[in-house]
């Protein structure tokens, strides 16, 4: 009795004050139960534990407990950790403490993807429950080779996360690399997957994402089959895949859910959109400030007429409009969906028209900025899209100072930066060589031709 009451008192003392800690007592059975009612399945606890215990004698207690997969606890730390993980701690016969897992997370149901929408493919997306997300993956890959490693992050939060891979397909050095990076994190707590990725980035000051994030179980399943390592983070509706490449951020699940010719055409369109959104506005600034002789005479006359009332240099004019577009984009993202869409459309039309009439900008620049903005939406992955938009401001600045030379120098610096990046110590641009990887990088070849793993995920 002394041991049991000592442990019970220590647990209550360490959890005090926790008004949401529930205590249930069965004096005739020498049983005390501790649990958090918002973590355990209340209905399951009532029907399978509390009601049976209220109807039996002490000799039948173990018959009830044996219905569950329980864990015996011997110390305060294990008991508290179990209770916080959604277990009911049962103190029985003065010396035995059993942890019964009744964890039932309160989370939303699986719904359609909000960011990575699909036209012809599956529509379900991850939610904030790591258990539900893992079940979505296992439903797609029903193999004993699918392995899951349980890890915890944060000294205080003890947040659960899973590292997932397929045995025999994923290289061992990638698995150990991810596990070591996560285990080396020393922080009180992390609350989102993106925070975790910032800690394990190999190039933390880079503008470009070194891990592929997705909210779609079908994308995760396909990446696992390619030999990638996948990470799930409890409380985040996203997963990360590693290693990744620059080109993977321009691939969409719909590429594989339609005819290969259409998938290839879509990829070419995205690469063209990348060039447009990155350089179109900067090229306008460069030509109008330094290289107007490159403009055809008829178009030059229209440009002169359009800019006749504009008091700003093209660089300031372009930066002003790009900044305005980003303000509208941010406002639309922070407001409720329907209002945000209205703000984006109406705000763009009203501000664009008013800016031209007031002489702040020219008609031609409005068209160029609008095309650049639309092209940025073609990039399927939102983090890469944001990185490209930010890089565009740097190119505009260089083009306004050095003309075409500055634009070319800026693009060259971006290419050098991307070429130097690594993801799990693998090159960020590795599919450019060997050429055999091109069939699922720059084009989407027929599925029968895409049989081998990418060279990035082959064993060294």
Automatic annotation (TrEMBL):
Location in the cell: Cell membrane; Membrane
Domain of life according to the entry: Bacteria
One GO cellular component term: plasma membrane
One of the GO BP terms on file: spore germination
Membrane spanning residue stretches: 268-290, 340-358, 364-383, 395-418
The UniProt record lists the keyword ATP-binding: no
UniProt entry keywords in alphabetical sequence: Membrane, Transmembrane, Transmembrane helix
Main location class: membrane
Pfam families documented for this protein: GerA
Topology in the lipid bilayer: Multi-pass membrane protein
Family per similarity comment: Belongs to the GerABKA family.
UniProt protein name: Spore gernimation protein GerA
